[in-house]
Design a protein that fits this description.
By secondary structure, this protein is mostly helical. The radius of gyration is 17 Å and the shape is elongated. The longest helix is centred in the C-terminal third of the chain and has 33 residues. It contains four helices and no strands. It has one domain.
């Protein structure tokens, strides 16, 4: 998780970060990247604190991910060619929410499967 946070920090410190030549494609790739990167970060946070109650760990992971996303945008305000964006925080939060919702569904499925296998 700490390594992933460092990767996010390093990418945020890269001036004028672009991934595609056309502006539309670059915009889509960057925003999808935001969602993916922070979705992974949320899962890694959950994994780090999941020894406690599962629901609490998911909510706490979401909150920490959004807080880190906000701090990442603040960090970008100091980088030439970058600018902070509340929209990006929302996109990051959406990525975290999707990843954690998928995790919750998977954990519920796995718990049911394990319970039904144990009762046979």
């Amino acid at each position: 998780m700490i390594v992933w946070a460092a990767v996010i920090f390093a990418l945020s410190a890269t001036p004028n970060l672009r991934f595609a030549q056309t502006e539309t494609v670059d915009f889509i790739v960057r925003k999808a990247g935001h969602m993916a990167v922070f979705g992974i970060f949320a899962i890694l946070l959950w994994r780090a604190i999941s020894l406690s109650r599962r629901r609490w760990a998911i909510l706490f992971s979401f909150g920490l991910t959004v807080a880190y996303a906000a701090s990442d945008e603040f960090h970008q305000s100091f980088i030439v060619g970058r600018h902070p964006s509340p929209v990006d925080v929302s996109i990051d939060a959406t990525g975290a929410l999707i990843a954690l919702a998928a995790l919750a569904i998977w954990l519920q499925y796995w718990a049911r499967r394990t319970a039904s296998a144990g009762s046979t």
